[in-house]
Amino acid sequence: MGTPQPDTDDLLKHYRSMKVIRRFEEEAARNYAKGHIGGFLHLYIGQEAIAVGAVDALQDQDYVFQTYRDHGIALARGMSPNAAMAELFGKDTGCSRGMGGSMHFFDVENNFLGGWAIVGGHLAVAAGAAFKSHYNQEDRVTMCFFGEGSTNIGGFHEAMSLAGLWKLPIVFVCENNQYAMGTPLERTSALKDLSIKAKGYAMVGDRFEGHDVTVVRERLREAVERARSGGGPTFVEILTYRFRGHSMSDPAKYRTRTELEQKKQLDPIQVTHEQLLALGVEEKAIDDIDLEVDELIDAAVKFAEESEPAREETMFGTVYAEEEGDA
Amino acid sequence: MGTPQPDTDDLLKHYRSMKVIRRFEEEAARNYAKGHIGGFLHLYIGQEAIAVGAVDALQDQDYVFQTYRDHGIALARGMSPNAAMAELFGKDTGCSRGMGGSMHFFDVENNFLGGWAIVGGHLAVAAGAAFKSHYNQEDRVTMCFFGEGSTNIGGFHEAMSLAGLWKLPIVFVCENNQYAMGTPLERTSALKDLSIKAKGYAMVGDRFEGHDVTVVRERLREAVERARSGGGPTFVEILTYRFRGHSMSDPAKYRTRTELEQKKQLDPIQVTHEQLLALGVEEKAIDDIDLEVDELIDAAVKFAEESEPAREETMFGTVYAEEEGDA
Amino acid sequence: MRTLRYREALREAMLEEMDRDERVFLMGEEVGHYQGAYKVSEGLLDKFGERRVIDTPIAEAGFAGIGIGAAMVGLRPIIEFMTWNFSFVAFDQIISNAAKIHQMSAGALQVPIVFRGPNGAARQVAAQHSHAVAPFYASIPGLYVCQPSTPRDAKGLLKTAIRSNNPVVFLEGETLYGLKGEVPDEGVEELIPFGAARVARTGGDCTIVTWGRPYHVAMAAAEKLAADGIECEIIDPRTLRPLDLAPVIESVRKTNRCVVVHEHWPYGGPGAEIVDQVQRDAFDYLDAPVERVAGLDLPMPYALNLEEQVLPTEERVIDAVRRVSYAK
Amino acid sequence: MRTLRYREALREAMLEEMDRDERVFLMGEEVGHYQGAYKVSEGLLDKFGERRVIDTPIAEAGFAGIGIGAAMVGLRPIIEFMTWNFSFVAFDQIISNAAKIHQMSAGALQVPIVFRGPNGAARQVAAQHSHAVAPFYASIPGLYVCQPSTPRDAKGLLKTAIRSNNPVVFLEGETLYGLKGEVPDEGVEELIPFGAARVARTGGDCTIVTWGRPYHVAMAAAEKLAADGIECEIIDPRTLRPLDLAPVIESVRKTNRCVVVHEHWPYGGPGAEIVDQVQRDAFDYLDAPVERVAGLDLPMPYALNLEEQVLPTEERVIDAVRRVSYAK
Ligand SMILES: Cc1ncc(C[n+]2csc(CCOP(=O)(O)OP(=O)(O)O)c2C)c(N)n1
Ligand SMILES: Cc1ncc(C[n+]2csc(CCOP(=O)(O)OP(=O)(O)O)c2C)c(N)n1
Ligand SMILES: [Mg+2]
Ligand SMILES: [Mg+2]
């Protein structure tokens, strides 16, 4: 199929959304180095077009699940940078009130259902959310993201098997950024084209490059509509690349500088920038967006710094949910 | 490919081997009813051509793994009916000295490595035995059997992924007897032709009917030779049917009498019997085999009855293996 | 009161709760068309249909995870493990997801789910099929763990479990399913609260804490001891998390002796936890160390003569009670 | 003696044993080309090559199972879990296979395998990545469980584990890897036997049983208590299965007091098991109930201020010792 033509307004919206993610994570990295953020911090930088394109292919009532590499999708889905940054700082104003940190963002209002840190562990959970839509005959699709390194684990297989068998309204999105921590795909899979795995579950498979946000949106829309119209699940492999290490502690020695530089030629934000100019958008208009986003993120850092630390009451009060008739 | 022509001597050998399994299990069932055997007892009746054909496709040094439905392959591989029956009776003379029972037959001398009762749990273990042949550059193939109901579980996926990635010398044999306990395949898998699953692991797949022992041997021999010659693993789906319930406690109400009767038309022992006659073998020669087998099995029951019960020393003495320098 | 089998009591609990709340559904291997591997769910498919009584492929981690996800967004799944031995392939789903979601989401999400099935030895099913799993699950904060010993407790606790807003591990017993006992009459609703131990027998000489299959072994042993003039007070915690030991402490203040009888392996688990709390909270009242009668510390062998030796016996209970009573 | 980091001590143990026995190999995620997620295996790939230092895909149940199968037929695998949290997806392989094969096969097969990796909290990695897993594995017969607190014990126990003919669960600590300590000089081979507790500090007032990260917390607390005239005797069991409490009982006969300090959740586990045995075997010598200082009974929160509150602190150890000493 030919590459879909972007619409200027959409593209401006997408550009801003990707920029928010990029700037948010650049500041997060800086504050991690400063020691304001602890634990693991997995950056999404380089993959932004996927989260932003995906969100535009979804409706508000749809559910979204992601791995620990969750800042991008959470922000794209509408989480405020304040709540996101405060969570990284371990503050009470964070999206998980300091309980979850970077790996466990939650935003139930925006139907973003986490932030999961066990590889393969959230796929069946996402299928369960889709099962509920099916059980209640709701017009609601679930989209579940995971990395290519997660396709060898049992949790992937069982979720795919059951979703395929029961024709659940779910889209499995495999973000193939070429590496699982330090290990390239060729050392973890005999299969190179992962979308072929769909055949093993009598499921539809798709596969494409993920640097053009409009392409991502259009291709995922097909899968989303298939799920919405009762056509069952789709397994989508999107080829992408992360510009940073696996997490802050990873110097990424396993790849060459040339490989990285070459991949950066397809930086989704750059690509979009050029598309905007080609569509006749003024450089100035883009600069304005950049400025506004910078301020938004600076404010988020300030908000996080000034917020109260996570509270003991939250920790003790969320081990068990209240029962009917409790206190 | 055309059906391979059976050789009379091979076929007589196969007939006897299948007959030993059949008669062994008929007596086991009788003694279970009498209360001489406890726990679970899963009969292989109807599937005998697979075990017998498989063993003839293997060499003595090759390793074999099976599920809890393990009497057939154990006997075909050379376990004495005495040791097998004594195990069912929980006797010290049993192949597992009364520790394992029906589900956990072991016969290390004949390279039969169990007898495993967790669905999907033994596939990776079998791949580990194959890994050792690979590590030590041994001329040794591993064959691992499991049911079609075991293809949805994570253990299947991870063993297939790793064996495919590392090109381990193993043959995965899926005995598709149509049912997982009371559940027919169409209610457990969106995929009908399970051999397609091989594609998801860049592995060779095969699929055929399992009632003709010669066909089974020839088709499995291809897979075994592929593994032996460094061609990597094969996933083989063999279509078969069990004439009894899942286990002794299963009345098998989920299938019709007509379905069962129709399937019995392809009783592998009957099929072989007819092939022998067609090859000009005398009815008398076949009767002689039957008689000899009856005596063998009767003797096995007698042996089991008269053997000493399992010993406390075995139970206490096999929790931990001795260390160098132990007593 | 009526007399019902343990299996029927469980079935009634599910039937009543499914009738009451459409969000409740049952999912597991052979729970529907086969009527349940142990017939606990017999008839439920006919009554509620395939939408709410769902047969699954063999993929415990998968359907446990699906249950957890469905619970997160508002349903109330009952997930049946054909036996608890098969929960081990779903262990990560239970400990990393079910038990954690409420806290990781700072309370924004709840996981009202029940995982149930037969636990422990089931007569000659050998090493891989005879696990008593309470030590694994009772140690995990975020879960509730029930292990009813009688039909009445089975029904009353399962109803409470299904209505709970938290993940519940519900341990039944293949060797208990056929057991008969009194259960409140139809129409009389009984919800047994979590964390409420039950005094099953009163006596002034020795306190016995026990649950599950060994509960019945201990009750029988107590009768024999009574014949010799030793009166045991038997307390069944009914839920292992939360663990209500207040009645045990109170009892020990009277008997000054305590024996804990359980099927699970001796190392750690609820058995050791109970000893830990009793020696701390009744320290000044104990005239003898707290003793335990547990399953032997080894994988379960197949042979019947050996299995009978591995599981707690009346004899071992009697010996322990005599030891703490300094009686011959 | 030399000074080595805990991480280096483990690496030396693997290097020496791989040099000594070609059947030994290391398998796990990122153990080779990446030099280990926590750099424990740094340099091993260069020395032994891809045949013996094997990077795996993310499939813990799969490569744990492959290790078990390889061990059954004569190899001696070291399986690294990037962290023990990820052993939960391989739990069934460890409990149903590794721990059972020797008995199910009536001794015909052995499973000489080591499962190792960092255990417990690793500073702000939150609920799914902070499990202290000893309660799960120490309760399983058929396994050995080691949890070394110092570089010397780490090396000596790992060498013993690799030479063992049985499956060994080896619990390290991400927060211990950088710890420095004395280790025997090169060429001086030290194999530390399983089931041999170590008296780390002598004192006549209170016995403290502790291991892992909290061992160091307890040692520091003991110094502070000594300043106030309370001398603690600190005993590190080093292996949790087998559990050697003879020196503890002996010590309690002298101190008449005991406190158990551990990271794992309070319910059950080695902590409660130790209390159970001490109250039984030292009953007549205890002047106060045995106390425990454990990780709090909840999922680990991310925020540092809260995580510090969840893990055992010097303050909590000091309070417990004072309580059992009836000292203000
Ligand atoms: C079961 C399990 N094993 C190991 C890990 C450690 N781990 C975290 S992320 C990761 C790599 C995942 O790679 P991929 O799936 O490609 O996702 P990406 O990080 O590239 O987005 C690993 C090994 C884990 N979290 N869970
Ligand atoms: C993990 C696990 N779940 C459930 C079971 C219970 N169970 C034993 S056999 C069986 C059916 C297996 O069917 P299939 O794989 O087709 O093999 P077959 O019995 O037909 O030979 C089930 C559900 C088990 N042993 N292990
Ligand atoms: Mg990746
Ligand atoms: Mg089958």
Q: Say how many strands of chain C there are.
A: 14
Main sheet of chain A? 6 strands, parallel
Structural class of chain A: alpha/beta
Strand fraction of chain A: 5-15%
User: Which percent range fits the helix content of chain A?
Assistant: 40-55%
The helix tally of chain C amounts to: 12
Give the CA-CA distance, first to last residue of chain A: 60 Å
Instruction: List the uncertain runs of chain C.
Output: none
Strand percentage of chain C? 15-25%
Radius of gyration of chain C: 20 Å
The largest contact between protein chains, plus residue counts on each side, is: C-D, 50 and 50 residues
Structural class of chain C: alpha/beta
Round the mean pLDDT of chain A to the nearest integer and report it: 97
Shape of chain A: globular
Textual characterization of the structure:
Chain A is an alpha/beta fold and 327 residues long. In chain A, 43% of the residues lie in helices and 12% in strands. In chain A, helix 1 crosses helix 2. The radius of gyration of chain A is 19 Å and the shape is globular. In chain C, helix 1 packs parallel to helix 7, helix 3 runs parallel beside helix 4 and helix 8 crosses helix 12. Chain C is globular and about 60 Å long. In chain C, the strands form three sheets. Chain C has a seven-stranded mixed β-sheet, with helices on both faces. A five-stranded mixed β-sheet of chain C has the order 9-11-10-13-14, with helices on both faces. Helices cover 36% and strands 18% of the residues of chain C. One thiamine diphosphate sits at the interface of chains A and D.
